[in-house]
Amino acid sequence: MARDSCNLKSSFKSVSSSSDDSDTSDHSKRNGGLRRNVSFSSLEIRSYNITLGDAPTPNAISLDWEYDPSATEEHQVDHYEHHRNENAPRRNKQEMIMPPSHRRDLLMSDAGFSMRDIQRATYQAVLCAKQREKTAKSVKLGLQPVEEVLEVLGKTKRRFSFGKSKHH
């Protein structure tokens, strides 16, 4: 399966966190804790390839783990926020939804996956989702240990049945 580049962008870079022990504000005293402060000084915009996703939806698409360091852009947060609306205004929730047909087209044309690859990944994702649902129900009902024992016994039985000859 080929994984050509279809770039999507994201990522904050540096984070600093501090708590101020000298803060004696009424709010801090009432909550019995320290005042926390988080700030971002710069951000990186990275270009990631896309790959088949593992969500149980048609044509699931995910960002790949690897990115192109040479295409990475670094900006100061204040400068970026001041100029971002000129180049790329914020999208609303509806504008961020990618229809399944578009995801399929991206996976096939830009990332090099076949329709069979996509169908196989979707099938596997649905199987995993069903297994998670089954596990969640059994945990909720307190059946988890019973199912684990049955699973081990089933594997043991299969292992012994594979060792037998057909001629016996």
Q: What percent strand? A: 15-25%
The major sheet is characterized as: 4 strands, antiparallel
How far apart, in Å, are the first and last alpha carbons?
Answer: 44 Å
Shape: extended
Number of helices: 5
Count of individual beta strands: 6
- Helix proportion range: 40-55%
Order of helices and strands: EEHEEEEHHHH
Structural class: alpha+beta
Rounded mean pLDDT is 76
Uncertain segments are: 1-15
What does this protein structure show overall?
The protein has 168 residues and is α+β, with helices and mostly antiparallel strands. It has 5 helices and 6 strands. The strands form 2 sheets. Strands 1, 4, 5 and 6 form a 4-stranded antiparallel beta sheet that branches. It has a two-stranded antiparallel ribbon with strand order 2-3. The chain is extended. Residues 1-15 have low confidence and may be disordered.
